[in-house]
Specification:
The protein starts with a strand and ends in a 24-residue tail after the last helix. 47% of the residues lie in helices and 12% in strands. The protein has two domains: 66 residues, 2-Layer Sandwich (Ribosomal protein L11, N-terminal domain); 114 residues, Ribosomal protein L11/L12, C-terminal domain (Arc Repressor Mutant, subunit A), CATH 1.10.10. The chain is built from eight helices and five strands. It is α+β, with helices and mostly antiparallel strands.
Length: 234
């Protein structure tokens, strides 16, 4: 068995290629890059649109390799679950979306191996914290309230069941709430854009009024007096 070399890379799920960073790192090792890329894409296909940490361990003598796949950041997994592109820039004021507690359990299970926790309940609390930072409601409630209820034991049975999908009725209710949040978010964005336009217009108007008119004398200056013409001698 030869010496082991490790290549760490961050690739888009299902879209790894033979180009940098993988190709440039694996090329000198004379490993079959095509096979590596193919396996990575197969292992990361469920993380489409997300950045996934990948580790390729190569035996420099036999050219054999093994691939381990990490998981994307919790925030990306959460947003993928509820089909939004980004969280809220003002999580305490504007909410970006809503997720079910069951989906939180799903994300917690996906991330549990990379979190510094020793049980699913702790992993769930970590994901709830990520929801709070991103401005995402859980079952229609603020994340901080959910954390309090978890500590009170209200979700013990649900966490123990490891259920990862809400029932049809709950899913429909959350979809309705998500639409309402989206409408509100767009209204807020529109108001901000309008306020920004007004402010920019006021700034431009002030800047224009501050420019002195070249046709008028400066404030405090003595107006120029045209020289008198001498009368023609008779």
């Amino acid at each position: 068995m030869g010496k082991k070399q490790i290549v760490d890379a961050l690739v888009e799920g299902g879209k790894a290629s033979a180009g940098p960073p993988l190709g440039s790192s694996l090329g000198p090792m004379k490993v079959n890059i095509g096979q590596v890329v193919s396996q990575i894409n197969d292992k990361t296909k469920d993380f489409k649109g997300m950045k996934v940490p990948v580790k390729v361990i190569v035996d420099t003598e036999t050219k054999e390799f093994t691939i381990t796949i990490g998981t994307p950041p919790a925030s990306q997994l959460i947003m993928k679950e509820i089909n939004i592109e980004k969280g809220s820039g003002e999580p305490h004021v504007n909410k970006a979306g809503v997720i079910s507690f069951e989906q939180v359990i799903k994300v917690a299970r996906m991330k549990s191996s990379s979190l510094l926790v020793n049980n699913l309940k702790s992993a769930v609390k970590t994901i709830v914290g990520s929801c709070q930072s991103a401005g995402i409601l859980i079952d229609g409630k603020d994340a901080k309230d959910i954390l309090k209820e978890i500590d009170e034991g209200l979700y013990n049975d649900l966490i123990k069941s490891e259920k990862t999908e809400p029932d049809a009725e709950k899913k429909k209710q959350l979809e309705t709430l998500a639409k309402e949040l989206d409408i509100k978010k767009k209204q807020v964005e529109k108001q901000k854009a309008e306020a920004k336009a007004v402010k920019e217009a006021e700034t431009a108007a002030k800047a224009t009024s501050a420019v002195p008119d070249a046709t008028k004398p400066a404030t405090g200056a003595t107006p120029a007096v045209a020289p008198k013409k001498e009368s023609a001698k008779k």
